[in-house]
Every structure is written in structure tokens, then in C-alpha cells.
Amino acid sequence: MIKVINMNNDEILRVENLHTSFFTSAGEVKALNGVSFSLKRGEVLGIAGESGSGKSTAMLSIMGLTGEAGRVSADKLEFMGKTLDAENIKSMRGKDIAMIFQDPMTSLNPVLSVGYQLKEALKRHHWEGSIRDRVIDIMAKVGIVPAEERMKQYPHQFSGGQRQRLMIAMSVICSPVLLIADEPTTALDVTVQAQILKLLREIREYSGMSMILITHDLGVIAGEADRVIIMYGGEIMEEGTVQEIFKNPKHPYTLGLMKSLPKPDSKRERLIPIEGQPPDLLNPPEGCPFVKRCQNAMKICLHKKPEVSVLSDTHKYSCWLEVKNNA
Ligand code: SF4
């Protein structure tokens, strides 16, 4: 697992050795096993990995939203210099750190007008100034016009893309420092996806807010992120700048993800899937979580967690191959 973190004065979020488990009738599901990363002001961090890799769980853990079945522990969990304990996160959630989810229909209340829902977010966080003006302003910024009319309408009167725009409006209405976007475009068609990503880019540019973008779509990450974390089996496999990860991927799992991506300029006809299934987190592997699907697996990979290989200040990966090659 990767634990090396760079300190920086611009750092707004620091996560060290984050563990999250869910207690189910079948036993303890170890969803996160020692995740560490940091985020700078204004930075966009992309987190990629297949379903069950722990990317959403990491964000829910930071937001204090794992529910009663979840148990979260960390050596450090800090945002803007404050520990994200239950008390602090309650006052920061929605105001300093906001989150948007994949499916806007489950996040918007169908029986309340969108204007009412936007106003509520402002009231909850004691917005100073005219609440109505702010709602009209933010609706116009996300392209829902005429805002004075449309704020009286209900979620079902908006298209899928417009509902996602409303969710973005609701998330950024209190001008958060950090926006966590969990698969914000997965449920949308390609044209609307491009519009939503453009909108998020514009909001970031005028507000200077940081963003964590969770997606299984490496193409979205390549276009939007500054840095990338690749997760698998509740651990970080590789992290680096977008250039480092896309030009010089090192971890066998990252390489597998790259090979499964369609390339428009390539003559290759078939995509190469990563054979096998993600690990059972009720009984996570003792060694490398990728061991059962890795074509380079060695004996040591079965029983011992891989050491971190540091390639640059920003590029690190967790695999025995580099250690063996350098021995
Ligand atoms: Fe994991 Fe070993 Fe494969 Fe590296 S070589 S990814 S440590 S199984």
C-alpha cells in the first residue's frame, strides 16, 4: 500500500492510513486497507478503479457517511488543518466539502420544488445575503434559465442532464473549497457528459475550488485531472500526475486498465479485458490484492504486501516487480 505523501503549504486535505470496514451478517468487509493521499488547493485529483475498489468508500469515509455498519479509522484525516471528526465534518459537509453523486434523481427530493431545495442548502449553512438572488445566480451559472420561472418547477420537469446540473448547483451553492464528484457523468449520454464536465471546469476556474473526481472512465480522468490515483481491492496501486500515469504506467493493474481502453487511432480490433474477479474483501489476500489476476505474480506477492517504489516526487506504485528488478 502507498503511504508516502508530499507536504505542501497549499495542501487542503490529508488522509493517512485510512481503514474502513463494514460489519455485515457474513462478517467484516475490509473495504479500505491503509489508503493515504493528499490534495492541494485548486487541484483536481482523479480516482480510478473498477467497482468495489474502494474509491467511493474512501470519499464516504472522509464525509462521515459510511452509516452505522461502517467503522472508519485513520492515522490522520484532516481538512484545512482541522481533524475530520464527527463534529467537524457535520459543520463542514455541504458548506466546505460538497459531494455530487451519479444519479441525480435519487439525490433530489421529487415532491419539493428545485428552488426550495436550493434555498434549504443555503439556510442550513446560514448564507449571508439574499438567498433568492443566490439561487437565481447559481441556476443561471449552471445554465438552467429563466431561473425565476424554473426554480418553481419539480425535479421530474427537468431532463437527466438538467437534473445533474441542478445537483451541481446544489453542491456549489455554498462555494465549497472541495467538491467530490462521484461518477458525475456515468448515467448521462456522451454529449451531456461533455457539457457537464465543461460546466464543472468552468466552476472550478472561477471559484478556484479543488475537486476529487471518482470515475471508472480513464478518458474522463485524462481530460480533467491533474493527478491520478489507481485503486484496487481497497488499496492504492499507483499514483502520479496525469502525464506519468498515462505516458509511463507501471503497475500491472494500471497497465491492464490501459489495455482495456478503446483507442481511436489504434488498428487493434479487440480490447483486452483483465481476466478474473476483484478480491473478496471478506477475506482479503494477505499479500498483493491483485495477485490472483496478475500475470507477473510471484511467490512473495501471495504473502507479503508489496513495497512502494518511488519513481519521482509524484509517481509511486506498489508492486514487487520494481523491487525485484532493482535487487
Ligand atoms: Fe501484485 Fe506481484 Fe503483480 Fe506486482 S507482480 S501487481 S506485487 S501480484
**Which strands sit side by side, in order, in the main sheet?**
7-8-9-3-10-11-13-12
The average pLDDT value, as a whole number, equals: 90
List of distinct ligands in this structure: iron/sulfur cluster
Q: Based on helices, strands and strand pairing, what is the structural class?
A: alpha/beta
Report strand %. Answer: 15-25%
- DSSP helix fraction: 25-40%
Broad shape = globular
Count of β-strands: 13
| Structural Rg | 21 Å
Quickly count the helices: 13
Low-confidence stretches: 1-7
- H/E element sequence: EEEHEEEHEHHHHHEHEHEEHHHEEH
Main sheet summary: 8 strands, mixed
The end-to-end span amounts to: 20 Å
Task: Please provide a written account of the structure.
The protein is globular and about 65 Å long. Helix 7 packs parallel to helix 8 (190-207). With 327 residues, the chain is an alpha/beta fold. It contains 13 helices and 13 strands. Residues 1-7 have low confidence and may be disordered. The strands form two sheets. An eight-stranded mixed beta sheet has the order 7-8-9-3-10-11-13-12, sandwiched between helices. Strands 1, 2, 4, 5 and 6 form a five-stranded antiparallel beta sheet that branches. The structure holds iron/sulfur cluster.
Features of this protein?
alpha/beta; five-stranded antiparallel beta sheet; 327 residues; globular; 13 strands; eight-stranded mixed beta sheet; binds iron/sulfur cluster; disordered N terminus
